[in-house]
Specification:
It is globular, with a radius of gyration of 14 Å. 33% of the residues lie in helices and 30% in strands. The longest helix is centred in the middle third of the chain and has 16 residues. The chain has 114 residues and is of the alpha+beta class.
């Protein structure tokens, strides 16, 4: 993967990978406020023409790095991010089960969000 820029569009809830000025991949997420603050990834999407280039992994890595910089945790609901975290425990500490339950509850209460 080369010439990919990653930007956080927090108001839209998207961590985006850009290549040649266009979005080629993204993680859709929300910020959980209670019972603790957490970034909660829900979907990882990479455009078909850009699959297999490491974009999804770069997005997951940046999401965890963002959380660390902000002093919060990641409570992943996205299956891709869950698997990525299992493969990279040194970069992706496990989420508290209480936060995961709260994140699932938030998502169920906001069915049109994702």
């Amino acid at each position: 993967m080369s010439d990919i820029e990653i930007r956080d569009d927090r108001p839209a809830g998207r961590l985006e990978a850009l290549g040649d000025g266009e979005v080629v991949g993204r993680i859709e997420y929300f910020v959980l406020e209670s019972p603790g603050r957490a970034l909660v990834p829900v979907h990882t999407i990479v455009e078909p023409a850009h699959e297999g280039k490491g974009i999804a992994g770069s997005l997951a890595r940046e999401l965890y790095a963002t959380a660390e910089r902000e002093g919060v945790v990641v409570a992943p609901l996205c299956p891709y991010v869950v698997k990525w975290a299992e493969r990279h425990p040194e970069e992706a500490p496990p989420a508290d089960p209480e936060l995961l339950r709260a994140a699932k509850g938030w998502l169920a209460a906001h069915p049109g969000r994702f």
